[in-house]
Amino acid sequence: MAKRKDKETNGFEQISFRMHPRVFAALGADLVTNDVVAVIELVKNSYDAFAQNVWLRFLNDPSLGTFLEIEDDGDGMAKEIIEDVWCLVATPFKELNPVVRSGKKERRVAGEKGLGRLSVARLGEHLQMLTQAQGDSCWEVDVNWADISAGDDMSNSFVRYRKYREESPFRKSGTRLRIYGLKGHWDQSRVSDLEENLARLISPFSDLGDFNIFLSGFGKSQTEEVKIESPEFLSKPKYSISGSVDETGNVKGTYRFAPIVEGTARKKELIFTWEKIHDAIQDKERFPYSSDTAHCGPFSFEIRVWDIAPDDTLEIAERFEFQKSQVRTVIRAHKGISVYRHGVLVLPKSDNARDWLGLDLRRVSKVGTRLSTSQLVGYVSISGENNPEIEDTSDRERLASCIEVAEFEEILKAVIALLENERDEDRIKPDREKPMDDLFEGLSSEELVAEVIALSEEGAEASETVPLLRAFSSSLDSARKTIQDRFVYYSRLATVGTIAQMLVHEIRTRTTAFGSFLEFIKNRFGPFKDRDIEEEFRCTDNAVNALERLADTFAPLASRGFKRRKRQSVLEDQIRDCLTLHRGEIEKKHVRCRVPDSATIVAADPGELDAIILNLVTNAVYWMGDVPKEDRELEFHLTPISGGERVRVWVHDTGPGIDMEDVERVFWPGVTRKPGGIGMGLTVASELVAVYGGRMSTKHPGTKGGASFAFDLPLRKQR
Question: Strand 160-163 to strand 138-144: parallel, antiparallel, or no bridges (unpaired)?
């Protein structure tokens, strides 16, 4: 142990830091989470070496057993690079040299942490490496990780190297790794997993046609090399959104609907500001900065979505001449949002991190409308220059926590919500029944049943149904709560009896279907030996029973009359009160409001009138976030109608306005363009107006260039 005393230490002794040789095995296990991730890191090293081709081969040696060979035709390494860079773990070499060049071409390096050697240490006990730089000798490097770990001092740990004594296997340059004594069990299943992840390694945004990956071994002929490519249908989704986010966090994208077999294609340009994204954030304590601009930096995105019910996968299979049973499997292999830096995969590296945005948990509250990772394949392109703070952690499982990453995640969630809203419109059937049915979409078991049946056909184990049961149970509880919340809105309406009848009928109809679904699960996978499965099944059954009890609660209201109290309100005073409630948001967004200087007394309950006005004010203020601050105005205009017996109230704003296709649908339940919205506000407001014999309407285009809504109410009768 080296100790030192000197005057500058004030009597303290100094001990030099040392590392035990076991650090290679320990760090390899901790920082590289699994064998597939380790192989991907080594392929990225080939990319960084400007290889055009990399070959992965699982080979067999009669005396040494199965080993992994990774060969590339990259730049290779000269002796000084082996000594000064390769033998220095966590070297800053790539960080200091972020761009590699070959002739007129250049690449931004994919790995900057210098942990490639730890990936090798994780995969096997022994490494034999050949490497040759152009115009240099071929060098042979030999590392026995087991011997190094067995030592007791790093000063006695060595990498052996020499000039290669046989003919070089490289035409000009390259590197070949042979990893012996594989620690993990590589079978056909794991190799297939590796193949799927390698297909995700290169972003479709990138012009990297000069980088090819080949794989052989395990079930394939030893001489057959399969080029890693994705099926054609993955590049031709039914629904998609692509676009970019600028340096301030504003989103500009294009939504596309491309029917697989029949239907009318549709394209729509979308704009969404960071200001509105920030407004929708629940936990604003995570975002201490101003809402005016985001700080994560500009990036581009493309998100592709498919419907994956049995009929949908059959359409895909027939259209693209692909095996039907493999459609869901391929989508699942690429599922989730993948982040690429300079065209090379950053996240996620393993299945455990596929849902790093939490989409599946978010979907529970609105099954059917919201997307799950199993039907979504997304690509996000970032760069080291524009997004320096968006970095993956050393274990490659997640992004490092910081304000920029939090903003990045919120923007992506908003983009997905925009896609979900547009997709809903294209999924609406022409023969759809009354809009009120949207309220019960969350109670449909069709999609979940289809997923379980598909898993069953794929030979899945019972344990794989646990997440589906958990999501199903949670969705039932969420749907029950949603119905209760919405019923509170409707409970003040004169139509409460009719609504209660519909609620009771729809809930009881669906609980019958749920019972059949649970019976299918029980017959297919029961009896349940796994405690978790038994518990999830029990919770789901309880959720169904809770829905039935909810129907029993509404049943007495189905035939009960409902009488309103006779109240009156000063319309202009109620408008001002509602604006006061929103004063903080109105001032923050620099919205100028104009209310008539008059006093119009209407025969309407103040609480119900507030519900109407607040909804219109909230929507107007929210959507004006899309226009410059100096252009934001909200104006109320009153006009007597019906011979002076009623008054029409116009609410005009200078926001982006309502799309022509939404003019008829805007009052339907469940129709919304707000990310995370439930689409009930205008429905409730319009039905409240209807109670007073009036009608709520909108017009396109609006009077002030934005949205214009009108509603009429009865004036107080003169005595």
Answer: antiparallel
Q: Domain map of the chain by residue range?
A: 23-224, 232-427, 435-559, 569-714
Cα 159 to Cα 143: distance, rounded to the nearest angstrom: 5
Name which CATH class applies to 569-714: alpha beta
Q: Which tokens go with 70?
A: 């990774």
Say whether 101 sits in a helix, a strand or coil.
strand
Number of C-beta neighbours around residue 425 at 10 A: 17
Distance CA 602, CA 599 (A): 10
Q: What is the pLDDT of residue 681?
A: 76
In 3D, which of 154, 122, 119, 99 has the Cα closest to residue 43?
Answer: 119
- Cα–Cα distances in Å, from 400 out to 89, 404, 625? 21, 10, 30
DSSP string, 164-231: --S--S-SS-EEEEEEEEESS---HHHHHHHHHHHHTSB-TTS--TT-EEEEE-SSS-TT--EE----
Enumerate residues 6+ apart whose C-beta is below 8 A from 469. 521, 533, 536, 537, 539, 540
SS3 label, residue 647: strand
- Please identify which residue in the block is written with the tokens 């004006």: 624
**pLDDT tens digit string along 180-239?**
999 888 888 888 888 878 877 766 555 545 788 999 876 544 557 888 877 888 889 999
Token pair 């908003």: residue:
414
Q: Give the CATH number of domain 23-224; options: 2.60.40.3600, 3.40.80.10, 3.60.15.10, 3.30.565.10.
A: 3.30.565.10
Handedness of CA 649, 618, 416, 458 (dihedral sign): negative
Query: Mapped to the 3 state alphabet, what secondary structure does 406-442 carry?
Result: HHHHHHHHHHHHHHHHHHHHHHCCCCCCCHHHHHHHH
Q: pLDDT band at residue 608, thresholds of 50, 70 and 90?
A: confident
Q: Is the peptide bond before 701 cis (omega within 30 degrees of 0)?
A: yes
Pairing of strands 646-653, 633-641: antiparallel
DSSP state of 143: E
Residue 47 burial class via C-beta count within 10 angstroms: exposed 0-12, middle 13-18, buried 19 and up = buried
Residue 556 burial by Cβ neighbours in a 10 Å radius (0-12, 13-18, 19+): exposed
E-only strand ranges, 280-359: 299-305, 336-341, 344-347
* 367 φ/ψ sector (left φ>0, alpha ψ -120 to 50, else beta): beta
Nearest-Å Rg of the Cα atoms of the chain is 32
What is the three-class DSSP state of 577?
A: helix
Encode pLDDT of 380-438 as tens digits: 999 888 999 998 776 666 788 889 999 999 999 999 999 998 898 887 544 333 344 44
Of 652, 553, 545, residue with least CA distance to 596 = 652
Q: What are the start-end ranges of the E strands in 284-416? A: 299-305, 336-341, 344-347, 376-382
Question: What is the β-pairing status of strands 226-227 and 212-216?
Answer: antiparallel
Nearby residues of 601 by Cβ (< 8 Å), 6 or more positions away: 568, 569, 570, 571, 715, 716
Asked if 23-224 and 569-714 have one fold, the answer is yes
- Tell me: the pLDDT tens digits for 567-576? 788 999 999 9
Per-residue pLDDT tens digits for 449-499: 777 777 777 666 666 666 777 777 766 766 666 665 555 445 444 344 455
CA dist 685 and 665 (Å) reads: 14
Listing DSSP states for 233-288 in one string gives GGGS-SEEEEEEE-TTS-EEEEEEE--SSSS--EEEEEEE-HHHHHHH-S-GGG--
